[in-house]
Design goal:
By secondary structure, this protein is an alpha/beta fold. The protein contains 16 helices and 23 strands. Helix 15 links the parallel strand 19 and strand 20. The structure holds nicotinamide-adenine-dinucleotide. Nicotinamide-adenine-dinucleotide (NAD) binds next to helix 8 and helix 9.
Length: 493
């Protein structure tokens, strides 16, 4: 049920709320603010506080206090679970308001923004239910000994999230950490973080004690850098670019703490000639178009068996050409890119493709009437793309799909594993044995057979290998990363 409303007008140049510490908004120490652009409009519509090292210090101190001696650290698993479930319900109660904020802040179609808010709620439901069900074991050992293990929270966990799915990332990163009893400090992305700034208010309303959730908006190079280097943080969770991932891992090493890194990918969809094309086609296209391609698990490489190449590619071309980008309210296939910088990045890739004489097989359109200053690009299908080309190897983070032919099963595996990344993959074939053989040879964290996409799968462990990062989020697996295992050994004889 909706009990709070926000219309477009109330979101016009919203003033910065500040830094969220101990369930209160406090002014940023610097007094500075950052302009927030509505990507579909290309104009400023809100401001966020520019947190800095002093704000991070205060947030970490609040989290430490909550964990060591505040009300948060005293709660049992079942009590924490109830709070998480209550927050999940509050998110659902505010779905219209949150959808509107998320859509305006990121420019994604309303239907996608709504799905993201539902997923955010689901993270709190799922981990609320798990909070009192993740326990240790007893281990048979020598005569005269009793041995048991228990899962302990790290203490203060630091969370840095990107701009592509702010609401989902808030839930994905914080819910498992909180379920296990950690006190958290989040630095959301400066390009889009208005839903996280609303969600932390809802967390206070749900009853989370002071200091359990602290959110410091600000620049990555200031607030983010201060959080990853902070000596008072016991574990780091990062989602974003491989470049910043290296910094996070370096700082974690310097402070002797662990970290999980989710750094994107260049994920393959492997399509054999015997594919059920009608069933596959929506996924083959949607996997690169969802969120305008700004998805870590985007299906950015379409590997197609030569035996079925013409039939399969013709069908993808036909569907691709019909795609349309538009404003959130138009609710089309995709929205604008997040920023001018991201727009320039995607355009650089397509200019380079032209320079490298890669054929442009199909191009979607931009709907009439979108604001001319919005960061829109047309979805583009290129192919055949040589495996050595940048379009076959690097993450574009835009609606650009590369078609790459392969000869047979063995060649498909070589091609699929032929990048520095390893996040997710899809295998499409009606030969179940072959699909399973191929899936098991793929280097990556998730492989789908005759399906694609991690989007809705809160229950499914998710993460990468190689340059895509390490550690697992989602599912019960995330609870491993947000805890440390203690072994208790008792000699009783
Ligand atoms: P980014 O890695 O710079 O930003 C992600 C988060 O890290 C943001 O919250 C940012 O403020 C923070 N950050 C930036 N610099 C930091 C620093 N020095 N120390 C600590 N935190 C820092 O990513 P971006 O520049 O916004 O996007 C660039 C590219 O990264 C994209 O084009 C895409 O290829 C990739 N990316 C991947 C994901 C993903 O989901 N894996 C998300 C966003 C971007």
């Amino acid at each position: 049920m909706q009990n709070t409303t926000a219309d477009q007008a109330s979101l016009q140049i919203a003033p910065a709320k500040g830094i969220f510490i101990d369930n209160e908004w406090r002014p940023a120490s610097s007094g500075a603010a950052i302009d927030v652009y509505a990507p579909a409009e290309g104009t400023v519509f809100a401001r966020i506080a520019a947190g800095n090292v002093a704000d991070i210090d205060r947030a970490v101190a609040a989290a430490r206090q909550a964990f060591e001696s505040g009300n948060w650290g005293r709660l049992t698993g079942v009590e924490r679970g109830r709070l998480l479930a209550r927050l999940g319900q509050l998110v659902l109660d505010h779905i219209d308001e949150l959808t509107l904020i998320e859509a305006r802040d990121t420019s994604k179609p309303m239907k996608q923004a709504r799905a993201d808010i539902l997923a955010c709620a689901r993270y709190f439901e799922f981990y609320g239910g798990a909070a009192d069900k993740f326990h240790g074991e007893t281990i048979p050992f020598l005569n005269g000994y009793f041995v048991a293990t228990e899962r302990e929270p790290h203490g203060v966990t630091g969370h840095i999230i990107p701009w592509n799915y702010p609401a989902q990332m808030f839930g994905r990163s914080l819910a498992p950490a909180l379920a296990m009893g950690n006190a958290t400090v989040m630095k959301p992305a400066e390009d889009a973080c208005l839903t996280p700034l609303r969600l932390c208010e809802l967390a206070a309303e749900a009853g989370f004690p002071e200091g359990a959730i602290n959110v410091v908006p600000g620049l990555g190079t200031e607030a983010g850098a201060a959080l990853i280097a902070h000596k008072g943080v016991d574990f780091l969770s990062f989602t974003g670019s491989p470049e910043v991932g290296v910094l996070v891992q370096s700082e974690a090493a310097r402070n002797h703490i662990g970290c999980t890194l989710e750094l994107g990918g260049k994920s393959p969809q492997i399509v054999f000639a015997d594919v059920d094309l009608d069933a596959a086609l929506p996924s083959l296209v949607n996997a690169i178009v969802q969120n305008a391609g700004q998805t870590c698990s985007a299906g950015a490489r379409l590997l197609v068996e030569k035996g079925g190449y013409d039939r399969i590619v013709t069908a993808v071309v036909e569907r691709f050409a019909r795609l349309r980008a538009g404003t959130p309210e138009m609710d089309l296939d995709l929205g604008a890119l997040i920023s001018r910088r991201q727009h320039e990045r995607v355009e650089r890739f397509t200019t380079r493709a032209a320079a490298d004489a890669i054929p442009l097989l199909a191009e979607g359109g931009i709907a009439e009437g979108v604001p001319s200053a919005g960061y829109f690009v047309t979805p583009k299908l290129f192919g055949p793309v040589p495996r050595s080309n940048i379009l076959a190897r690097e993450e574009v983070f835009g609606p650009v799909l590369s078609v790459i032919p392969f000869a047979d099963e063995a060649d498909a595996i070589v091609a699929a594993n032929g990048t520095d990344f390893g996040l997710i993959a899809g295998v499409w074939s009606q030969d179940g044995k072959r699909a399973l053989r191929v899936a098991r040879k793929i280097k990556g964290g998730q492989v789908y057979i005759n399906a694609y996409g991690a989007g809705g799968g809160i229950e499914l462990p998710f993460g990468g290998v190689k340059k895509s990062g390490h550690g697992r989020e989602k599912g019960m697996a995330a609870l491993h990363d947000f805890t440390t295992l203690k072994t208790l050994v008792v000699k009783h004889d």
